[in-house]
Structure formats: structure tokens, C-alpha cells
Amino acid sequence: MKTNIVIWWMLAVFFFVCFAGYAVWNIVDHGGVEWIGTVVFLFAAFMTGLIGFFVTALHRGQKGVELPEDRLDVGIDDADPEVGEFAPWSWWPIVLAAAPAVGVLGLATAHFLLPLAAALLVIGLVGWVYEYYRGNFAR
Question: Which of 61, 67, 108, 138 counts the highest number of beta carbons within 10 A?
């Protein structure tokens, strides 16, 4: 966690230096500020600073507990959390991915595809939720 904190604050300082250098360079070279690039560098500095602040506050909230990634004496499985139980060879995630794809395609081209996308979403959700109640993986 300490390494993450240092990296994020270094990125914030880097983007702020880039912001200052870019603004000064444009004033010297063109006689005025080029607003788009200057604002982008400033916002990048603010965003990385925000993430750095959040990671620092999170580390303080955990009372400085070291993560397994920060220690040299840990095994490869020490930072591996239990993710959950998933059905092998399930086709329902593909159906669920197809639903927003058809929906976005419907928004972009033909609006009559939107009800089809909604129906595909409902079918995919019901199929994935009730997958363990029938077929090969029934309990």
C-alpha cells in the first residue's frame, strides 16, 4: 500500500509539473495560454492527487496494516481472495453480454431492437440465476 501511495503522489506531482511547464511554454512560444492542454494536465494532476489522497486515507483507516503485496515473505496464495462459485461452461454470461450490445446497436441504428435487448437481458438474468436449479448443475 505504501508503494501505491508513493506512486500516486509522484504521478500527481508529475502532472502538476507538466501543467506548469506546458502553460509557461505556450505563454513564451505563442504569447498566450493554450487552454485545452493546460486544463487537461491540471485535471490529470487533480485526479491523481484525489486517488493518492484516497489511498492514503484508506491506509490510515486500516491502521497501517501491510498488504501481502508489501511483504517479501508471503506465498503466492496469500493475497488470493475467495471470489465465489461459478458454473463451469456457462453460456449465460454470453447472453448477458449480448443484451447491452444489441441495446447499444439499437440506440445507434434501429430503435426496434431495444425491446429485443430488454427481453434478451431478462432471459439472460433468469437463466443465469436459475442455472443451478435444472440441467447438469441441478442441486
Answer: 67
